[in-house]
User: What shape does this take?
Amino acid sequence: MLASEETYSEAAWQSEILQIVLLLNPKYIKAIQSAPVRDIDRGAMREIDILLIDASGNVDVIEIKKPFNKCIVTEGLHRDNHIPMRELSGSVMQVEKYIYYLNRWGADGEVALTEKYRDKLPQGFSIKITNPTGIIIMGRDNNLTEIQRRDFEVVKRKYKNIADIITFDDLLRRLEFAIKQFSAEA
Assistant: This one.
């Protein structure tokens, strides 16, 4: 898919990620695509790309964008730094809002999500909203310079308390590493 990345929709990327996300994040037992979250401020429902549920019932979110180049950090410098592109900043804000919505939804959200996904969860299992975190999967890092990669790492670590920002290339490296580990152990 990465060889012809622009021919796939964001929904297609989400479906593909859904197939490998639990393998790469073994703390999670369930990944649910297009999960609802209540925007209490606007009285509307929003849709999270992927809702992750861990073995204790706690939820986290994944936001997936298409893996196009030039959406991570600028090519040019601003005060000797490659700064985050609008797409990256916007994705961070989107994840922060989903986390905000989940936290505001609170106990009512726990009940609503548990009820909605009861048939997909173990019997007696309850979903909990306890300071969710987020993961953003977007862009490519294969064409970044070493300096851009370092500046991108600074940005990723800045948001580490809220979100993990992963490029599709990094996701692929993680998958290849996991496959090698499983093959070596077998």
